[in-house]
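re: ur question from yesterday

yeah so i grabbed the chain u mentioned. its 122 aa long if i counted rite. heres the sequnce exactly as i have it in my notes:
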Amino acid sequence: QVQLVESGGGLVQAGGSLRLSCAASGSISRINAMAWYRQTPGKQRDLVAIITSGGSTNYADSVKGRFTISRDNAKNMVYLQMNSLKPDDTAAYYCTVTYYRTTDSSRLYDYWGQGTQVTVSS
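ran it thru and got these structure tokens back, copy pasting raw so excuse formatting
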């Protein structure tokens, strides 16, 4: 069993900041990539930012320069610092990890969190 617990969402005014956190626990041997996606009602879930086990990052064009993804490998945590928030950033934000299980190191698995709502008011 794997658990992903997200926190840090909420309501913020445009121009403000929020920091999302995601803690992974359970039958995890090693985490590969960690990422944040977001989704609004009726639309597909889109990648916001991803960070590899080596620390390489990639961002959606719409958040470059405003959002920063980071991770703490010792704690199995990933963060998303969101600055200069815009109403268009309003969405449910989901944490996801790809990982090796303690019981099966032959392949990667992925797991998704339950999501945390971010609402940016104009």
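noticed a couple things. The longest strand covers residues 28-39. also The CA atoms of residues 15 and 84 lie 4 Å apart.
anyway ttyl
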